[in-house]
Write a structure and sequence with these properties.
The protein has about 325 residues and is α/β, with parallel strands linked by helices. The protein has two domains: about 190 residues, inorganic pyrophosphatase (n-terminal core), CATH 3.90.1640.10; about 120 residues, Diaminopimelate Epimerase, Chain A, domain 1, CATH 3.10.310.30. The chain contains twelve helices and eleven strands. The strands form two sheets. The protein has a six-stranded mixed sheet, with helices on both faces. A five-stranded parallel sheet has the order 2-1-3-4-5. A hairpin with a 3-residue loop joins strand 10 and strand 11. The chain is globular, with a radius of gyration of 19 Å. The protein binds adenosine monophosphate (AMP) and manganese (II) ion (MN) (2 copies). The site of one manganese (II) ion (MN) has 5 residues, from helix 2.
Length: about 325
């Protein structure tokens, strides 16, 4: 399975590990677990993560990440949890300066990239695949690696509740727990803790909510200006679609927010009766059946109507 990837790693000295921009728990868990494992193998290794939400700062090593790859030539880029190389938190130039690229992912893929690819859209998280990769590298899982893998798996499975959570997922989580992972703290910090500003953002999202098709579709929009006014950044303003989906009777929740780079980000969540990844791919993005997204271009009102219409037709 990972034989070729292991060979590439063995032949590499300078290695950078990267995930998608706006990193979530899985992006952070899978990259840092891989980073710790490669360090144990004596590699010169860095995680490239130019920005992330402060709520992840309690996790080991996160503050040691770097903003960009200064080296003009390096051996290997390991990309995790990103279905498209343009979504990686490195520039095209940094990407192309890698002699080899390993891609590890669990999205429905529209554009595979890299020299070695391990893509399994049946896996609940990239962190679960990173676990298999680390085992294949022959590295013993220590507490830091376990903490990161657990945080990643827990995040992307919605606390082991989404449909793609498997018996293997739970067996891996059990093994990680045995390494001394502080699972109480991880769950509390990542799921049950927020800044007051975030609570205010939720209020704003609820205030701006629109409903369609008798509440089967819920939509909200927050401008970047409002996000800044609240004192939040791009990463800290994620997650509103989950709250909308939680309302009884909702099939699809849509959250559009303005970003610091002037674009509009669409986040969608479903209850599983509709495959959102198909819609997101049609709009140039990607994701999973129950969670998908894309960058919205053009006039928001026109584009919103288009999206609501497509979703309505699929329901
Ligand atoms: P989010 O709503 O940002 O949490 O994203 C939900 C899922 O959709 C994640 O698995 C993302 O990787 C994927 N996704 C979000 N935005 C994009 C995009 N612009 N292109 C490809 N996939 C995306
Ligand atoms: Mn992710
Ligand atoms: Mn993921």
């Amino acid at each position: 399975m990972f034989e070729e990837a292991v060979k590439i790693v063995n032949d590499s000295k300078s290695i950078y590990v990267v995930a998608h921009v706006n990193p979530d728990g899985d992006a952070i868990g899978s990259t840092f677990a891989t980073y710790f494992a490669l360090k144990k193998l004596g590699k010169e290794v860095y995680v490239v993560m130019p920005s992330y939400s402060s709520r992840f700062e309690f996790l080991p090593g996160v503050k040691d990440s770097i903003d960009k790859i200064e080296k003009k030539n390096y051996d290997l880029l390991i990309a995790l949890d990103s279905s498209d190389y343009t979504r990686l938190a490195v520039s095209e130039e940094e990407y192309k300066n890698a002699k080899k690229v390993i891609m590890i992912d669990h999205h429905k893929i529209s554009r595979p990239y890299g020299d070695f690819r391990y893509i399994d859209d049946k896996k609940a998280s990239a962190s679960e695949i990173a676990y298999l990769f680390i085992k294949a590298l022959g590295v013993e899982i220590d507490k830091d690696i376990a903490t990161m893998l657990y945080a990643g798996i827990m995040s992307d499975t919605g606390c082991f509740s989404y449909a793609d959570t498997s018996p293997d997922t739970l067996r891996i989580a059990a093994e990680l727990m045995e390494k001394g992972v502080n699972f109480v703290e991880i769950c509390q910090r990542l799921n049950d803790t927020m800044k007051e500003e975030k609570l205010k953002l939720i209020a704003k999202a609820v205030d701006n909510m629109e409903t369609y098709m008798d509440g089967k579709i819920r939509y909200t929009y927050i401008s970047y200006e409002d996000i800044v006014k609240l004192g939040l950044n791009d990463e800290e303003s994620e997650g509103m679609a989950n709250y909308l989906r939680a309302v009884d009777g909702t099939e699809v929740a849509i959250y559009v927010r303005g970003k610091s780079d002037g674009t509009l980000k669409v986040s969608m969540r479903s209850r599983g009766n509709i495959d959102l990844s198909k819609i997101a791919i049609a709009f140039g993005g990607g994701g999973h059946p129950q969670a998908a997204g894309y960058t919205m271009n053009g006039d928001i009102e026109v584009e919103k109507d288009k999206l609501i219409k497509v979703v309505g037709e699929m329901l």
